[in-house]
Amino acid sequence: MLNVDQIDVTIDSKPILSDVSLEVADSEIVAILGPSGSGKSTLLRAIAGLVDVAGGEIRWDGRSITQMPPHRRDFGLMFQGYALFPHMTVAGNVGFGLRMAGRDDIDRRVGEALSWVGLDGFEPRQVDSLSGGEQQRVALARTLASEPRLVMLDEPLGALDRNLRQQLVTDTRKVLDDRRVTAIVVTHDREEAVALSDRLALMREGTIVQTGRLDEILDMPADNWVREFIS
Q1: Tell me, what's the pLDDT at 159?
Q2: What b/e readout covers 138-166, taking b as 16+ CB neighbours within 10 angstroms?
């Protein structure tokens, strides 16, 4: 279980996150939903250890990881825009993190991860020859290949057109459910957030203002902003 307890993040003397708390249970998928600039991506990076936490604590299964370096957290982060290496093949991209970690049986793990996302046999393909949807699947396969204990997806479908996004929402949710992945998904799209997650965390101006299922939030919104934003 992930526990984010009242964390603060300041970047270039500017407060970005303030008193943010969030829990994610094992095998639960939580969507962080909020407008642009609300701090969603910064929260993911704080959990991943890519930005410093000025106050509060981040724990995994009760153990503080606030000062733990990113490579020891065993978390997977899929960046907005996918951050694939255009000079590498699909196999090279999916296996990159495995090679850096010195993992064994990389070819088998790459093949399994590609099968999870419906890209069997794509290992030799060049990334720049793929469609946007295929690139999204490669990025997801790369994130899942090392079987991290927490997966974080930052606007995973934001670069795609709406028709393709609708299909990939279904496919991505199935992959996460089938693997029983513990995950956080960042998005500004309500429909996408609901379809991809078990529970929502609404974020505004650097803090989480309400968490719960969509029906719970609609029944009892925390304030007028939540009521207008979620309706």
Answers
A1: 61
A2: bbbbbbbbbebebbbbbbbbeebeeeebe
